[in-house]
Amino acid sequence: MNSLNGLTSPASDQFFHSAFAHAAVGMAIMDTDGRFLEVNPAFCRIAGYGAEELTATDFLSIGRSSRSLFFVATAAKRRGAEFHP
Question: Which residue ranges make up each domain of the chain?
Answer without folding.
Answer: 4-78
